[in-house]
Amino acid sequence: MDMIGLIILLAIAGYAIMAYNGLVKARQMVREAWSGIDVQLKRRADLIPNLIETVKGFASHEKDTLREVTEMRTRAQSIPSDDVKARASAESMLSKALGHLFAVAEDYPELKANQNFLELQQTLETIESEIQMSRRYYNGAARDLNVKVESFPSNLVANTFSFKQADYFEIETESDRAVPQVSFE
Asked: Helices 84-105 and 63-78 sit at what angle, rounded to 10 degrees?
């Protein structure tokens, strides 16, 4: 009977070690994925001052829009990198402000034709696409960690070693979630 008890104890210990290592790996994947988002958000934030200066040259009386973009950029950068929910909210508001900026640009044909503005706009579009890819990767890593933290019996190990669920990086702007309407009228 002692041999059977030892085998059971070793099996439980083996499972606990495997579960712990799996949780550590999942947590590291979330951190790495968030780092990818953070890099793209930094690239976007670094591009915004150049974009604003270019627009200022053509649309100086659009001060409210330019101020809004600047304020949203500052707010997004002031949030600690590890606060995923607050950062997602601030970045969503920044995206909305940038949308307003590009809407303003539509009213200035000479701005829309400016090579510097076109290059900045193209770079921003590329960065936005990379943010979306990074966000999908991050949310997948967060999902994997969250499943392990919640699933039995790995949740026993997760609770013992204080593993927490990761927040998702979600779109908060309803217009971003909306399905585009197509009309042929």
From this structure: 160
Over range 96-125, report the average pLDDT: 86
Contact between 120 and 54 (Cβ < 8 Å): yes
Classify burial at 15, counting beta carbons within 10 Å of its beta carbon; exposed 0-12, middle 13-18, buried 19 or more: middle
CB atoms within 10 A of CB 56: 12
Record the pTM.
Answer: 0.79
Instruction: Tell me which residue has tokens 């921003």.
Output: 124
CATH 1.20.1440.20 matches 23-172: yes
CA 110 to chain centre: 34
Q: Tens digits of per-residue pLDDT, 66-104?
A: 889 999 999 999 999 889 999 999 999 999 999 888 888
The domain limits of the chain are 23-172
